[in-house]
Design brief:
The protein has 8 helices and 6 strands. By secondary structure, the protein is of the alpha/beta class. The structure holds zinc ion (ZN). The site of zinc ion has 8 residues, from α2.
Length: 220
């Protein structure tokens, strides 16, 4: 059924680059070669200083230039267009899959960084939740969307310094355990890693034996 639906869709909407609409170089490619080459991929996808207790932190691109633009358009679609901007979403999903490919080992469970229910109501969707679906598929690991929840609404981390960020997310998360094994924690963008570190602490307290972080982008 899915294959048939896809064929029908392709008949109606021939494959096009999610960035510029040009014909891609391969039918299943998300981007044409030119758009792909403009993504600021990280020379070092693995963060040399992961935000402990996160053991390994990987990302596909640096949060700048076209990557910043796509991620912004994915996270903040124009009002009423949530879920109707397939281009930016396809690109950020691609970045999440790429980041997952940089994990040195797999994971037993994939957990998205939660957003507060209030944000879900405002935004209409959960960016990290969507990316976690991609990461779970890439790692062939089960997705546990509800393993973490945000128990305290926090202000945006944008514009805050390192210490303020850590303070802002302290005690903001709770785990629905018990958990076990290696967890891949997924978010769209990481800056200082304060959110990842706080989530990792909660996951480990709930029984996870190690936490790796997978983000589409890292702000250098
Ligand atoms: Zn293109």
């Amino acid at each position: 059924m899915r294959g048939l639906l896809r064929e029908l869709l392709e008949l109606l909407l021939p494959p096009a680059c999610a960035g510029c609409g040009a014909a891609p170089d391969a039918d299943d490619a998300v981007l044409c070669r030119a758009c792909d080459a403009r993504l600021p991929r990280l020379a070092e996808p693995r963060d040399p200083r992961p935000p402990l207790p996160v053991l390994v932190s990987v990302a596909a691109v640096s949060f700048e230039a076209t990557a910043e633009d796509w991620i912004h358009r994915f996270k903040y679609p124009p009002p009423g267009l949530a879920g109707l901007a397939p281009g930016p979403e396809a690109i950020v999903r691609l970045l999440a899959r790429e980041a997952a490919g940089h994990l040195p080992e797999g994971a037993d469970l994939v957990v998205p960084v939660p957003q507060h229910p209030k944000r879900l109501t405002q935004r209409g969707f959960w960016p990290a939740g969507k990316l976690a679906t991609e990461v779970a598929r890439a790692l062939d690991a089960p997705l546990a969307r509800g393993a973490l929840r945000r128990v305290r609404d926090t202000r945006s981390q944008t514009g805050l310094g390192r210490r303020e960020r850590a303070h802002n997310v302290a005690r903001a998360f709770a785990a629905r355990g018990p958990l076990a094994g290696r967890v891949a924690l997924v978010d769209d963008v990481t800056t200082t890693g304060a959110t990842l570190a706080e989530c990792a602490r909660v996951l480990i307290r709930a029984g996870a034996c190690q936490v790796a972080a997978v983000c589409a982008a890292r702000r250098l």
